[in-house]
């Protein structure tokens, strides 16, 4: 580099590093351009070495020292050379380059600390390319040893480089840039030099630790600081070794790093002890060998105790400072146990019962005690870190039976109770909490703490339940003592006036709630099949007496806790109902609770009650329903008294509609316990008499459902409402009361119907009787059981006391839903949008808007986030005296409730009864093309979830043509059109449009009017999902549209997956059958084996389902029926022309929608469609289109598809194997290709062709469509397709075949990318081509070092390989002739 080049480079570096040196923008751009171009030049490396070797300061204009910046730029040039040109260097040039780099590192000084990271990166990059193939192990170690001992700076470079080298070859976050072969070579080389490298580390740490101690005594601060930094660097490198390298690296007599970690726990200078604890934790996270495990089990408690004595924390500041150390130690202890439970339970001196003289038992108890002692830390984050380990211990069957934990549970109980207690973060923010500093260090802020608390409480519930199953007497006794203590201290009237959700008293009682619920459940579930032991029963009886007798009626907040306690006791009341009547009476009083601030007289709206009072009534109602479900047989004797009490409360008009509904649900649960069907039916009639009358002949309902205009008038949407009229208290109260009567009737009937349906399904199903009675006869699709057809309501009523009401209530439900749908017709919509108040009837409700835009915290009520300002309707919400924000919620209820009841109608089988046959056409008319066009996406979502999915699952398969086809045909055809319009890409490359808002509603009304209901207008309507977003901000408007758009697509795919047994109840049925078959085969193999069965083997051990529930004979019979429906539904959805057409084409279109979740769902459905139809010649073109769509997607590499590519490739492989190669696969395109034999006209059909759920068949005649598709791709030809097929026949494993497809499509993708140029750049958003690091097609197996010479065989590997028997190529007939070959 001559002086002119040097001066230009110096100037450019100086200006780039300090922009104030040049004011002209052009000068700055020229400097940047020069630096960018220079590092790509041929002499950049030589110039860089010249700069780095120079000892002369680099001065710009004689007074600006830019030496550090020049060296950094020089290192950037060398890194660029390494990444781009180094692979083409000869061995000689590589050695010269490497030597120069080592000389630069050796010349580094303490003042060059700024370039140390780049030097380490450069050394690691060279090592990963050359070591050990071109950079011999001896030479590598000589260089490392020299730099290690030269000075502190060079040692730091080496440590950082070794850390990066190891991470690049092991950690999944880094190793994608290095080929597998190269990673293996480097790791093998490191392992072979470990005998030289690790003693070097060991001596290095010993030396500098000695220097640290001596310099500390001599008060030599520079030497002390240097030793601390070097020790930390060494530990950071050893941390990576502890995670990824062989365990013998850490635990070896010659270099015992475990002893170093344990010893350094006492050194808190520079947080060395934290780093040592981290290394120890990383080691403990691995599966340890028996010797190392027992060594840690024995020594860790001792070393931790010593470290605690040396590093005593006497102040809050020191405690806060040491929190990371304590947390890491706690994690190391827990991981040691959690990942090695099998080694503990294998010790016969501990299990099944600990022997008194067992050293292993004493060691284990000492270790568990150390874990327990760590939880004495004032910050419960330590406790939270151990919960998973204690859960794992408690879930182990041998630990449960051994009583091992009996001695530690008493010390754990109060710690876990404290852990569940919520911290008042307001006090933390204000600094009034004594441990504020510690809590802020542990969690940072309120949001992080709330997330942590919700997660920990979920785990604590499981742990307390497990403790109670293991030690019911001990847990019930401790729980009783805690309840007595807390209620005695905080439960009295002395707390009156000072009770709030953040008061100490309330927080203490709230934390008890979780423990009471889970402890009682655990103690009772342990004896679910029998009586509870006497002492446990006595303790729980006293507990129940304390809680039932605690009636803090001075505070609605306390009464909420009281109601929760009553609900928690439901498990115990089943075994001892002594206090059950009092508990039920207390809850009756709670649902009608009035505090001192509540006005006298009737209660007609929530505005008359305080929010805490409303919440109490709601909680008490749900608690009553829970008690009714759990203790219905016991409460049945009091049913008349309960009904009298409920009627008394209802007649006194002190209950709001939700509480009336809860009472009715409770009474229904109790009544369902009776075996007298006539009495049960009579009771249901008496409970619902008022509601049925209000629904069928009530004045409000009759007027409301007579027309759309009357519906609008009924909810307060007059022809020209004003602000004064919609906020007039008398008007609001009158209209709200009228609506409440209508909806309460609907809601009460619906909930009673659901409870009756639940009760029916919990008992022996009458539809399984034919399967139990059949002897030799096997039911098939052609020979169905007698129950798979219409059944009269009179027969259904023998099992379900609700169904006899359907002929009376169904017409009213149909009218309600019909009128509600008509409100969204374009002619009505344009009128409402044009009015400044009426338009809000079309808007999202506040709850929907908050959920759609994710503006609420998980686990909280979305309305709590709205507060008092309103979100959709600015300045108000439905809690205020204003009709406008209530309209949207009311319309949702009037649509969703009838839809749910139609789903219930199908679920109860009443829909298919002869009595309701005349009404069925009216149900079909609800889903006419006119109604379907007009409704919004969110209404269609509810239609799919609440009606279509139950309909698909409940319809007898003999009635598919008469019941499913009339309903599904218009819906499926409409969905295909709607989804295409919804996901249509605009001219600007974006999907969808902005929904109308308050500021654009007038324009939207004009557009609606001028559109006049044409298809073109509806397509625009669907582009914004039919939403009206009111006063929502613009960004939230877009978020809501996107949320609803994807939710509709997901709902459609989920419904289809459920119908095809890919998820839900039917998928569980297939999983149960598969599990039972596997277990039966395993048992048969064991019984047929010459080896005796293992300990604990029994023939009856296969009595659980796939979800863990106990398997009964009823499961076998129900699965026989469901299998018939699964097969029938698969056939119906793919071969009934009016249904199959839109289903299949919509699913294929879903593959192109820019949403990864939709694509994944659609791919699963495509596999099932292929399995169901590939053997049918008429499906060849459709499946060919599916293949073409997938191929086009994979080669275009859109950004939205990142992460889904392998799923697409798996579908392409499934299609190609079945359509072309004659290879059948297992369900979902899994497993190797199973080659079918050649037949006279092609392939012979696979045995599973008629059973898609078993994998389906193949196309007997190879299809040319996929071949033509592949051959037409850029860069492909006949020969490349032939090569692909030959490879797929030679290698039939799924991984190999998918890899062949990936390599095949990569060629086309690269050519297309070059052809596109900048047309498909990053500016194209989701549809732009994925970047180099994103696309699967770019992630080649050959990465860094792809041209490196191979390393010699690994030590101990055999040079002989078993020769696999070569299978003949599975006749891919016609490949050559297809393309004109001979």
TrEMBL record:
Annotated keywords: Cytoplasm, Nucleus, RNA-binding, Transport, tRNA-binding
All residue ranges annotated as the Exportin-5 C-terminal domain in the record: 321-1219
GO cellular component terms given for this protein: cytoplasm; nuclear matrix; nuclear pore
Compositional bias per record (Basic and acidic residues), positions renumbered to this chain: 1331-1351
Residues of the Exportin-1/Importin-beta-like domain: 115-280
Major subcellular site: cytoplasm
Subcellular location: Cytoplasm; Nucleus
Keyword Glycosyltransferase: no
InterPro entries named among the record's database cross-references: ARM-like, ARM-type_fold, Exportin-1/Importin-b-like, Exportin-5_C, XPOT
Molecular-function GO term, any one: small GTPase binding
Domain of life according to the entry: Eukaryota
Region (Disordered): 1331-1382
Listed SUPFAM superfamilies: ARM repeat (SSF48371)
Ranges of biased composition (kind: Basic residues): 1359-1368
Keyword check for Transferase: no
Pfam families given in the database record: Exportin-5, Xpo1
Residue ranges the record marks as coiled coil: none
One GO term of the biological process aspect: tRNA re-export from nucleus
Family designation: Belongs to the exportin family.
Protein name: Exportin-T
Organism of this sequence: Triparma strigata
